[in-house]
Write a structure and sequence with these properties.
Number of strands: 10
Strand content: 25-35%
Structural class: alpha+beta
Number of helices: 4
Radius of gyration: 16 Å
Largest sheet: 10 strands, antiparallel
CATH architecture: Roll
Length: about 220
């Protein structure tokens, strides 16, 4: 499998453009490889569902850094979740990696996930599951997924994103916290997507943008 790191210019855009185009890209760490099948956009100061909505803190500082790095955070006192930082520095934009389809290294993923992950579809079918399967924790906050400075890369093997991905509201957001925005995209019909039939297919050529936060993600 010939895989090239996704270039930094890919991430230097609005996360609502990056998220649907991240679908079918590869998350790679050593022998572990999985194809991204679900992603959500978080849009800084205009997005009440985003950690960056109220500005930069010690916790979310990586979101305001350079594009093409991982923003990794701890939630519910037990789960890690990872995001690809997008846009310009100082803005606070990111795409949550919600789910992926395992391609190789499943036994290592399964060892990390534990006895509940008997099937391949249980390995990466949620943002916390994905991080656990890949061993991504707080030590990876700020990791450069273009250069792979900490062994994690987001790569491209030539598989294009779906022309008509599924789209829905984001998962786990409460009323008034950005729950109305359809900023979640997924590979329709893929068994690793974290929610079954949560939205409708959308023609990306006709996509329009609408003028509890990222911690509201469901681990499952």
């Amino acid at each position: 499998m010939a895989v090239k790191p996704v270039p930094r210019r890919f991430y230097r855009r609005d996360p609502r453009d990056v998220a649907p185009e991240l679908l079918n890209k590869l998350l790679v760490r050593g022998h572990r490889v999985a194809r991204i099948v679900e992603a959500e956009a978080y849009v800084g100061s205009i997005d009440p569902g985003s950690h960056a909505f109220k500005g930069m803190t010690n916790r979310n500082a990586t979101m305001f850094g350079p594009a093409g790095h991982l923003y990794v955070y701890f939630t519910y006192g037990m789960h890690w979740c990872s995001n690809a930082v997008c846009g310009d520095e100082g803005v606070g934009l990111a795409v949550l990696l919600r789910a992926a389809s395992p391609l190789s290294g499943q036994e290592e993923m399964r060892a990390n996930r534990g006895p509940l992950a008997g099937r391949d579809r249980d390995l990466c079918s949620g943002p916390a599951k994905l991080c656990q399967a890949f061993g991504i924790d707080g030590a990876f906050d700020g990791a450069d997924v273009v250069k792979g400075d900490r062994g994690v890369v987001i790569g491209d093997d030539g598989t294009p994103p779906p022309t008509s991905p599924g789209v829905s509201r984001r998962v786990g957001l409460s009323l008034g916290h950005g729950d109305e925005y359809e900023w979640r995209w997924f590979v329709a019909g893929d068994p690793n997507v974290s929610r079954v039939n949560p939205g409708k297919p959308v023609d990306r050529t006709k996509r329009t943008r609408p003028g509890r936060g990222q911690d509201g993600v469901s681990p499952g």
